[in-house]
């Protein structure tokens, strides 16, 4: 039997090592962007299916897998936040909204979701700031303004007037 020092000079050892590297290379080769998108889409579909069957742990796992393959996937972020809403995991939902905002800082939907999570977690002033930000990034969108007003009303914030884009 060859010693460890002899293995480095042994042609059979090199062939074996090269074969192992080649085989491993096939299994750990980087996934193309197209393959990642296809994988992310399938994980998202799995997440939706699990969610509709109230299998929240599996749904969460599937949405996280989709996000691992496609970190900016808006639908997967929404699905993950739906899981946290259904389970009343408001702190985790606010954290997910923050991470989604890292990819979509101008998307009012994520600001509204963040505000709702923070409100439900009892962080009233932070919730208000997130809702105000939703209006700032989309002041001309009356649907956004209406949803923010509804969130402030639901909070029963009597002083809940925020400066809207049109000065109201």
Textual characterization of the structure:
The protein has 168 residues and is mainly α. The protein has two domains: 33-87; 88-168, Serine Threonine Protein Phosphatase 5, Tetratricopeptide repeat, CATH 1.25.40. Helix content is 73%, strand content 0%. The protein has nine helices and no strands. It has helices at 4-7, 11-28, 33-52, 56-69, 74-86, 90-103, 108-120, 124-137, 142-154. It is globular and about 35 Å long. It starts with a helix and ends in a 14-residue tail after the last helix. Residues 13-31 and 161-168 have low confidence and may be disordered.
Weakly predicted, low-confidence segments: 13-31, 161-168
Under CATH at level 1, the class of the largest domain stands as Mainly Alpha
Per DSSP, the total helix count is 9
- How many strands in all? 0
Q: Architecture of the largest domain, CATH level 2?
A: Alpha Horseshoe
Strand percent estimate: under 5%
Computed structural class: mainly alpha
The biggest sheet amounts to: none
> What is the overall pLDDT average?
79
Domain tally: 2
Query: Which oligomeric state applies?
Result: single chain
């Amino acid at each position: 039997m060859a010693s460890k020092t002899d293995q480095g000079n042994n042609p059979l050892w090199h062939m074996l090592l090269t074969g192992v590297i080649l085989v491993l290379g096939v299994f750990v080769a980087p996934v193309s962007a197209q393959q990642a998108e296809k994988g992310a889409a399938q994980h998202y579909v799995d997440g939706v299916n699990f969610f509709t069957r109230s299998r929240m742990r599996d749904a969460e796992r599937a949405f996280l897998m989709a996000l691992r393959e496609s970190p900016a996937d808006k639908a997967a972020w929404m699905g993950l936040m739906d899981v946290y809403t259904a389970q009343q995991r408001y702190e985790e939902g606010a954290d997910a909204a923050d991470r989604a905002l890292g990819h979509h800082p101008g998307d009012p939907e994520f600001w509204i979701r963040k505000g709702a999570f923070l409100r439900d977690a009892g962080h009233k002033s932070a919730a208000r700031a997130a809702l105000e930000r939703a209006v700032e990034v989309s002041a001309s969108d009356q649907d956004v303004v209406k949803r923010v007003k509804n969130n402030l009303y639901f909070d029963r914030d009597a002083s809940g007037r925020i400066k809207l884009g049109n000065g109201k």
